[in-house]
Amino acid sequence: MTLKGHCLCGAVGFALGGPHNWVGHCHCDSCRRGAGAPIVTFIGHPDGEWRWTGKEPAVFESSPGNRRGFCATCGASVFYASDSTPGETHFHAALLDDPAAVQPTEIDHAHERLRWMPEHYPGCGKL
Ligand SMILES: [Zn+2]
Ligand SMILES: [Zn+2]
Fold first, then answer.
1. Is this prediction's pTM over 0.90?
2. How remote is the CA of residue 13 from the centroid of ligand 1, in Å?
3. 37-46 pLDDT tens trace
4. Which listed site, 11, 89, 108, 111, has its alpha carbon 20 to 30 Å from 68?
């Protein structure tokens, strides 16, 4: 099964083939600032199993070894990749044509959760 996604303006697109490594929410400060959102949800997908279907995103190194991709036209956050997690790229699940096609099962950096964000999410058992 291939899942497709795109940014707000549609210039950047991607297609994910085969199974994901994981799907999870992240509460960390860097993800929040990068996306302008109180929580982000990533799909960890193996490199070599996905491709760009439109323009490639611009890349910002948010800290040494950590790269965040965004659409240079509309500014939408598209991916995160890190030297600390080689072999996989983390795509923003909210950009999928059908974001409900995946089920987050993990929560990262829970200790950075904003106090007005819920602590638990439907279908997401692990903390
Ligand atoms: Zn765009
Ligand atoms: Zn994060």
1. yes
2. 9
3. 999 999 999 9
4. 111
